[in-house]
Amino acid sequence: MTALTAIWIVAVVLAAGALLWMSALIGLRLVHQRGAVRDLADRHAVQAALLGALQGDGDVGLALRPYEGDAHLMALSLLDFVTLLQGPDLETVVETLRKAGVEEVLRQGVVAGAGDARLACIEALGAFNSPKSLLVLWRAASDASPATRLAALRSLLQAGGGVSIAEVVSRLRMENLPPGGSTADLLRMVVEADPDGAVAALEDSDPLPPSAQAMLLEGLGAAGAYAALPTMVSSLSAEDPKVRAAAAVALGMLRHPAAEDSLRKAMDDPASIVRSAAAEAIGAAGLEGLAGTLEDHLRDSAWSVRFEAAAALAKLDPPQVGASDEMADPQRTATG
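The structure assignment produced for this chain is given below.
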């Protein structure tokens, strides 16, 4: 066999392999698309059955029977209704699914499921408050996966499972909840229910991790906890700039005139993240007495501070926005 013949054979084999690979990919894509279309059709059928329950249809159980064993499908369908309904209508949907045995199916999905399907079952189980479902959720709240623990705590809170601020704070102290918006949302929910507990956690002699302190402060601000004003002010002197910035944001959410002096001082913080947060808070709180302070920071060394100062001035007194030429150019350094 000549070298040219060997090269030709190798080329043919490679081309055939490439064709087989492309054919396999196309086949998998077609299978996936057909599965997605089927799943969507099933979901619409479940939704139609549940809408029938809201209209008093007596054959809902029969319509749900082909799908009631699919934990993932039932979880997603219920979650669609949870986002759209409340009060008696949502109770009707939940009771219809309970009678069809879906609650037990969801519990099994939490115990034996995996990945996104298991998370969906955990979230959907928050619509039920039976002792068995609460027990399953509490077990999931100790799962090795941070995302699973967080989803379980949120569902327990929604189901009235007795999730306290102390419980969440203890988990934050161990840093076994994932950072990010979902944890912050959970904190806002528990802080709104027990603002005094959140203040106590912030003032504990054993300090929480800075990220946890920041989320608690913003949760108190979002909850409108005016009793936490002294704690927010004292947190402006915290060692970590993220905590100081969160305290400034929380003070802005409260819109309390007593925060004016504290936010004026925060505008001189050495960390730009804190100055930016303070400027944003001044605008949010409508503290017109600090307009001069904001004008002084239109020439701040940090562009983010110049931007927030100009934005705050626009909220306090729109004509003053024209004074913010330095803010408009992120490459320009301070001239004063």
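Interim note for the steering committee: The chain has a mean pLDDT of 81. DSSP finds 19 helices and no strands in the chain.
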